[in-house]
Amino acid sequence: MQFINNMLLDMELDPKLVEYLAIIIKIILIGLICFVANFISKKIVIRIITRIVTRSKVKWGQIILDRQVFRKLSHIVPSIIIYSFASTFPTYQSTIEKLAIAYTIIVGLVFLQSLLNAFNDIYQTFEISKVKPIKGYIQVVNIIIMTIGFILVISNLIGKSPLILLSGIGALSAVLMLVFKDSLLGLVAGIQLTANDMVRVGDWIEMPKYGADGDVIDISLNTVKVQNFDKTITMIPSYALTSDSFKNWRGMQSSGGRRIKRSLYIDTSSITFCSEEMIEKFLKVHYLSDYIIQKEREITEYNAKNQINRDNPVNGRALTNIGVFRAYISHYLKNHQGINQNMGLIVRQLEHSEHGLPMEIYAFTNSVEWAVYEAVQSDIFDHLFAVAPEFGLRVFQNPSGADLRKMVEEPNNKDLVEERSY
């Protein structure tokens, strides 16, 4: 730098002009050195590192490259050069050094943030990340690092010790608590969610209050991201999962069976005792033949033992079409390939209502997949709706417009037939 000053003075230029020209030339040279150093670090050094990482078999190496960890670190080279040449400008040396240090701190913060994000991406490649996500903790560390970096930058620029600023933060603690309220609540909620294993990435959760009904795709410090089945995204505050109730379907998914709990409403006016013709018909049904034989034997023995007169069907025991139908459903489900036979299976009658007698099926499918579950459930009820009339039963349904129109047309048709007969 002294050589530049001497060269300009040898040209017999005005001393003031020499001073300005020397500064301009020095700035250009320093800028050129920074440019060359940055070019070498990015175009040569980083390319070499990229080639080495690409050729290696380390899986997480590519994640570090995708996060541009080394590229962001390379920005520190120009700041070190500028800091080294600060003494070239004695008048502004202190200011240049402070700005260079501040820039170095900022680059370091960006580098650490990128490194932490890369660490989180690497952690997510392991199965344990779905059970114990750490994204919330990474965000907390980022906040702490950014806060410390901000304090260091300010203390460097004003030339004061960071401890002075830290002591002043104590007075601003109430303001900080207000500003970072959601983050603090999210941190506590994240610890509870992880420690109690309440929710994982991939869980199907249902939270009507927030309109969430779908799979958890991300758990962060402040929010839990849920992709609903209509492909919309719902953001739920992390602390809401600990303060409000929600349904997690993980237990169903891991059990290997999904529950069917649906009723078939029977018109009570169609319920009756089984006649001899009906019993003979039921004996030919594959799932009922053994049941009918056993029940007929039990009923005959009971009535004979108690000397019951069966001339009146009210006396003693007798088969009913609704009872036989219930037994048929039970045997049908026990032989259905889509039903999990190792889990609960009940066919029961519920309380009678204005809609008829509910015949509820309580069973579990073999598959927890939605499409398979719906297909099995539909197949079962398709069959039951079709076979109910074979037992002399009618499925209840409120009268429709067609039913009312038929009731009106039938008397008119009857009158027309009578007129023609005359």
Automatic annotation (TrEMBL):
> Which superkingdom is the protein from?
Bacteria
Q: Name one GO biological process term.
A: cellular response to osmotic stress
Keywords of this entry: Cell inner membrane, Cell membrane, Membrane, Stress response, Transmembrane, Transmembrane helix
Q: Where are the transmembrane segments?
A: 20-41, 99-119, 140-158, 164-180
Q: Which GO terms describe its cellular component?
A: plasma membrane
Report the Pfam families cross-referenced here: MS_channel_2nd
Domain Mechanosensitive ion channel MscS stretches: 182-250
Cited InterPro entries: LSM_dom_sf, MscS_beta-dom_sf, MscS_channel_2nd, YbdG
Please state where this protein is localized: Cell inner membrane
Q: How does it sit in the membrane?
A: Multi-pass membrane protein
For this UniProt entry, the molecular function terms from Gene Ontology, in alphabetical order, are: mechanosensitive monoatomic ion channel activity
PANTHER family of this UniProt entry?
MINICONDUCTANCE MECHANOSENSITIVE CHANNEL YBDG (PTHR30414)
| Protein name, as recorded | Mechanosensing system component YbdG
Q: Which organism is it from?
A: Bacillus yapensis
